[in-house]
Specification:
Strand content of chain B: 35-45%
Radius of gyration of chain B: 31 Å
Largest interface: A-B, 69 and 84 residues
Largest sheet of chain B: 13 strands, antiparallel
Number of helices of chain A: 4
Largest sheet of chain A: 2 strands, parallel
Helix content of chain B: 10-25%
Number of strands of chain A: 3
Number of strands of chain B: 14
Oligomer: heterodimer
Radius of gyration of chain A: 13 Å
Number of helices of chain B: 5
Strand order of the largest sheet of chain A: 1-3
């Protein structure tokens, strides 16, 4: 059987990671640094923060800092997560 | 990929809006699961009971809400026609089946017109590439080896001020900053490594030149440290910490007049755990206010031959142990200025275990990025205490425009 996940599901899950309240407007074209703040290692640390999150841990998400090395915008992070699913044989559909 | 992502993002917004109202299998669990429709399916006989194949089919439907709704011929997977019904429902009534981990085998027609569009795999995963570039920042530890492109927006910039006083005839140059050439390599995650396991995720080699202090004709304030060294950094991702950064920086030290002579090495450990707001955060504290607390441990060994324009002692070894702790807050800002203003306070506390000296340097301040890229920043700092690099006692307010590269 082929595992299927909707791309919209991925964005919904990431949205809830960044904003558990669901109240904020998330701009996917905005720089990731507007939502991930910290010392210089924070963007890389976010990979493991995603892996441990309740939203993605159930899928066994195992991103590394290299997966987010070129993630300037939030949409780049979505793309990185989609890539992870695809590399593990998931079909990502719209 | 970009077009699909744009569609996915808009769908994601729609899903978030309807998520509270979505119908899921969980809502149906209050009703007893009806096994009768499965009697006689999967090649079995209608005999009032389920054989193994019929029971397996019932199990699939019970645990798989998409199958339960759309596998109307009870085949155990979705035919082209059943798949089209699913697609039509998703377009007109977007209930998100995202809590579903597995769907029955999708036929190849899924990516044809009218079916669900499959996001194509546009590129194979590329192994981490090495990168080399110059950085200009305020402090050695403001440089990170962890990412290929270190963000300037939250980094502190270097500053240089020169004043030529005609009346008192006291010329003064003050500099605080570091120039680094960093060669960085990030490492891919080993295949098969459990998601929670840690691994070496990057390393870097970074020669640097750091300047901190004042060169002045007024000898009272003529205190400075000029360091030339090499930074060696590695980072581990995973485990209890999201990331740990380890650095070792051997260096040679003099002053702005070239009078001092010293050498030493500095080691540091900087951990990250974003959900605990340790050295970073991915969720606001409340509303649109972000913040995190800083923490870093440091060890700094220094041998001084000649103190020059510092208050260090000649022929003395210093062995500083300590670290940095502080808080950084990002107040809410108007649209387009998000996260460009930050206020901070931190304490740098170190103890020289050789000479029983304590150096404590306190900072409070605010910094405002003047542009989107973070190339220029305005900062207002108040610092008081003792600088361990020069053992100079400081109490000063500084307003400066800083530049970053």
């Amino acid at each position: 059987m082929t595992n299927i996940i909707r791309a919209g599901t991925i964005t919904s899950l990431l949205r809830s990671v960044l904003d558990p309240s669901g109240q904020r407007q998330i701009d996917w074209e905005a720089p990731a640094s507007e939502y991930i703040v910290g010392e210089n290692g924070a963007p890389s640390a976010f990979a493991n923060a995603l892996n441990r999150s309740p939203q993605f841990s159930g899928y066994g998400l195992s991103l590394g800092p290299n997966d987010l090395a070129d993630a300037d915008k939030l949409r780049d992070i979505v793309e990185a997560i989609i890539g992870w699913f695809q590399r593990r044989g998931w079909q990502v559909v719209l | 990929m970009a077009r699909f992502i744009a569609s996915a993002l808009s769908l994601g917004v729609a899903f978030a809006a309807v998520s509270a109202a979505q119908v899921s299998a969980a809502d149906e669990e209050d009703k007893p699961f009806d096994l009768k429709p499965f009697d006689g399916k999967a090649g079995g006989q209608v005999d009032g009971r389920l054989n193994a194949a019929e029971a397996r089919l019932a199990g699939l439907h019970k645990t798989n809400p998409v199958l339960a709704k759309y596998d109307t011929d009870f085949s155990g997977d979705l035919s082209t026609a059943e798949f089209a019904v699913l697609n039509a429902d998703l377009k007109t009534d977007p209930k998100d089946p995202g809590d579903l981990a597995t769907v029955a085998t999708m036929v190849d027609t899924a990516n044809q017109t009218g079916g669900l569009r499959v996001v194509p795999i546009e590129k194979e995963k590329v192994a981490c590439a090495a990168s080399s570039r110059f950085y200009v920042r305020k402090e050695e530890l403001d440089i990170s080896a962890y990412t290929a492109a270190v963000s300037k927006k939250e980094a502190k910039g270097a500053s240089l001020a020169v004043s030529l006083e005609d009346v008192s005839d006291i010329d003064r140059t003050e500099a605080h900053g570091i120039i680094v050439w960093a060669h960085t390599r990030c490492l891919p995650r080993p295949e098969g490594l459990p998601a929670t396991a840690s691994y070496l995720s990057s390393w870097s080699i970074a020669p640097f030149l750091a300047a901190d202090g004042v060169r002045s004709d007024d000898l009272e304030e003529d205190k400075s440290a000029l360091k030339l060294g090499v930074g060696l950094q590695v980072a581990r991702s995973g485990g209890w910490f999201d990331l740990q950064a380890f650095a070792l920086r051997p260096y040679l030290q003099t002053d702005f007049r070239g009078k001092a002579s010293a050498y030493g090495a500095q080691a540091s450990w900087e951990p990250y755990r974003l959900d605990h707001k340790l050295n970073g955060a991915h969720q606001p504290l409340f509303g649109d206010v972000y913040g995190y607390w800083q923490f870093r441990l440091e060890a700094d060994w220094l041998h001084v031959d000649k103190p020059g324009r510092t208050d260090l002692k000649a022929e003395t070894d210093y062995a500083w142990l300590g670290g940095v702790a502080g808080v950084v807050l990002f107040p809410p800002m108007p649209e387009g200025w998000e996260r460009r203003l930050k206020v901070y306070g931190n304490i740098k506390l170190h103890r020289d275990v050789n000479n029983a000296i304590e150096a404590r340097l306190n900072f409070v301040g605010a910094g405002l990025n003047l542009d989107d890229d973070g190339d220029m920043a305005l900062s207002l700092d108040y610092a008081w205490g003792e600088d361990r690099a020069t053992l100079d006692r400081i109490r000063k307010t500084t307003l400066s425009i800083n530049f970053k590269y």
